[in-house]
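Batch 3, record 17
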Amino acid sequence: MLNRMKLRYDDWQLRRSIQKRLEVLVNSITQQYQSLKERDDLCATVALRHVERADRNYKHALEHYMEEDFDQCDEFLEKGELHLHFAHLQMVPNDADYQSDFAEGSLYCLLESFCEAITQTKMAIEYNNCVLSDQDRKDLVSVAVLFNQALKAANQSETESATSTAEGGLLLLHATVININVDNHERLAEIRLPKKAGSKASLKAKELADYIHDCKQRFEVDGAFVSETARSHLGNAERNLRVSIQRLIEQDEQGCETAASGGMLEAKFAERMVEKTAQTAPIAASARVEDFAHLLSRLKKLLKRTKTHQHDSAEKHLAACHRYFSDAISEAARNNLSEASRLARAAYLDLDFARQLIVSKEPPQYLDV
Amino acid sequence: MPNRRSDKETLVQKLAGLHGIWSRLKGLYDGGINEQVDRLSQRLKQSTATKPELQQKLIAAQKLAQATTQLEKLPQDYSASDCVQMLRSAMAKAHGKKAIAVERLAKLQVIHAQLIKDYETATYRQSPVVAEAINCASDELHAASASLFRQDPEDALRLAGISWLHIKFGRQIFDAETIEHLLGESDYLELNDVQVPLDKLIERYFRELEAELSKFSQALKQSQAS
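Prediction for the assembled complex:
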């Protein structure tokens, strides 16, 4: 008997508290609707969405209250109250910046550094009008993909996978920035990559990336004296770097370290070869001619696809450019440097003329370097 | 008798949901709470108690503060007073976290809306990367709100952090491209796998050839100088 009475009392108390909450909710909704009517700023728009949701939740709560389904009623009431809380916070002007407050050394801190490194690299490339190779472009796209993958893994609470993906992405970005710096003869000072890499394996891979950077700079200084074999060893080192980054992303630390060590051997070998041949070799002809021919044939193929009316004329100038360039290389190999410079200039003039034929709307003219 | 939807099974499931919230709190304290909650769930599963009794327990347990009172009423072996103490302080912490989570989410929603507005009004460029960042941030914000409704502020804060990273990424890319546009160059670096228009590609190939030639000229100058 006493138990039954207690149950009835509890039930009455529950009804009363829910009824009161419903009243408070509907009054607050009306009040907020009124104050939002007079505003048309962005905060008010966002807040209004919450008030509308609170309104919908209130209606559902009321329905369940009528059916005496107090569990569901309570659930909708809570949702409605929370939406109103959101609206209230958003209606008060607050100019303070958002503080992410990520703990130092945490995954989220690493992800934030990754985010900043990508955007700073993009800005630096755009503002400096850097020339990028196809590979660099692909790598930058891969970096952005890795950033999204890392965030996805973080969302799934896969902390290890997110960390290794972010570290791998940062390393790939680091290696790509090195390439861009060397290709554009400048240091993109705006780029700041986190100095503190995580695991031992990722440190090794970073060390390799830095070593390749030094090698490339050395190759640039020695310019034409770099033999094809040395270039091929440096190419192998770069391939090893890519493998080590891939292994890092796959959380294969052992594989990452092995590939980085192999890459380091190749890079050191390439550097030693440059030291040996620097004083004796003339300008290494074949590699440069091949590279240039490759770039030319790629352009010609593209021009064929576009079928512009100036196509034939442009092709003749491109052929002349190729000829002048090959001759310039041969003259340089014979140490006839002034003739080589003259021929290189002629190659440039023909290339520029072909460019004007295809790209410019003005009549083409010979413009000096 | 009022028409109550939940039967015993649903009640046990709901208590299991509460168990989840308590389990997450156990990271803050030692394993005492978890053990108590496990035993409470077991007891409920095996219980031959009638529906209204279980209903009563659930309604009380839905408010976690009320749940502590329920634990106090249980026999000695279920609710040691230190367990109740721990639950109370855990509740206080969880409540603090909830307030932080609500505040952060409210702010993020405004920042997100601002990014959408800026993106939609920018006529000069509709970067797919920014669009993707906006969509991902939107999903994360939605999931974070859902976590709050589930009374899981810890998870809401985690998801709010991820959504902030998406928003920040989108905002920085958007700002960089706006400045590039204002500088009058509009030579954007694509960070997604899109087909580059042929005319842009031709210009780029020409630039690469010129770069190759100027590299060669530089090497010649250095050789002449030495």
